[in-house]
C-alpha cells in the first residue's frame, strides 16, 4: 500500500508534496496503471490534513492525466510519465545511492549539506555535458 509522508520543514505546500510523491512513485515503478491511490479519508487520517488538500493534489494529478477518480470507488492510476529508464536501473542506482548516503551521514553531513552537495555536483556535471 502506498503511504504518503509530509515534511513540514520542506517549504513545499502539502498538496504539492502529495503530487510529487505520486509522480515519483510512478517514475520508480512503485505505482502502476490500474493501482488505486489511497482514499482521501485514509490520507486525511494518516497525515491529519484537510481533505481539500488531498482533493487538490488528486485534481492536479487528474489534470495531468496520471490518475482518474471513480466516484464512490476511489482514485486510480491511469497514466505514467514516459519511462526512459528501466526499473532495474532505478533499483541499482538506489542501492548505490543508499550506500553513498550512509557514508555521507557517517561523515557528519546533515540533510541540508547532502542536498547542497548533490545539487552542486549535478550542476557541475551539467556544465560538463554529463547530466
Give the second-level CATH assignment, the architecture of the largest domain.
Orthogonal Bundle
- Portion of residues within helices: 40-55%
| Structural class by SSE content | mainly alpha
Average pLDDT taken over every residue: 91
What is the CATH class of the largest domain? Mainly Alpha
The ordered H/E elements are HEHHEEHH
Number of domains: 2
Strand order of the largest sheet: 1-3-2
Domain HTH gntR-type: 12-80
GO molecular function, one term: DNA binding
Pfam families: GntR
Protein name: Transcriptional regulator, GntR family
What do these coordinates show?
The protein has a 3-stranded antiparallel sheet with strand order 1-3-2. The protein has 2 domains: 14-77, Arc Repressor Mutant, subunit A; 87-129, no CATH class. Helix content is 55%, strand content 8%. The mean pLDDT is 91. Helix 1 (14-27) crosses helix 3. The longest helix is centred in the C-terminal third of the chain and has 20 residues, at 87-106. The chain is built from 5 helices and 3 strands.
Layout of secondary structure:
Blueprint: H1 14-27, E1 36-37, H2 40-47, H3 51-63, E2 67-70, E3 74-77, H4 87-106, H5 111-127
Antiparallel strand pairs: 1-3, 2-3
Helix pairs in contact: 1-3
Amino acid at each position: 500500500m502506498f503511504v504518503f509522508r509530509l515534511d513540514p520543514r520542506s517549504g513545499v505546500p502539502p498538496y504539492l508534496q502529495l503530487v510529487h510523491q505520486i509522480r515519483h512513485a510512478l517514475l520508480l515503478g512503485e505505482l502502476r496503471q490500474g493501482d488505486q491511490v489511497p482514499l482521501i479519508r485514509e490520507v486525511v487520517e494518516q497525515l491529519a490534513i484537510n481533505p481539500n488538500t488531498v482533493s487538490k493534489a488528486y485534481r492536479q494529478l487528474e489534470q495531468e492525466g496520471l490518475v482518474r477518480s471513480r466516484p464512490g470507488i476511489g482514485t486510480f492510476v491511469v497514466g505514467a510519465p514516459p519511462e526512459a529508464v528501466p526499473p532495474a536501473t532505478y533499483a541499482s542506482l538506489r542501492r548505490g545511492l543508499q550506500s553513498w548516503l550512509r557514508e555521507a551521514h557517517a561523515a557528519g553531513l546533515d540533510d541540508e549539506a547532502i542536498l547542497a552537495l548533490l545539487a552542486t555536483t549535478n550542476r557541475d556535471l551539467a556544465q560538463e555535458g554529463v547530466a
